[in-house]
Amino acid sequence: MLSKGSMVDAFSYSVLINGFCKQKMMDEAMMLLGEMSVKGLVPDTVIYSTLVDGCCKMGKIRDAQQLFSKMQACGQLPNVQTYAILLDGLCKNRQLSTAIQLFREMEGKKLDVNIVIYTILIEGLCIAGKIESARVLFRGLSSKGLQPNARTYNIMIKGLCIGGLTCEAEKLLTEMEEKLCSPDGYTYNIIIQGFINNNETDRAMELIQQMVERGFSADASTTELIVDLLCKDKVDPALLPLIQKENYEGNLPL
Question: pTM value?
Answer without folding.
Answer: 0.86
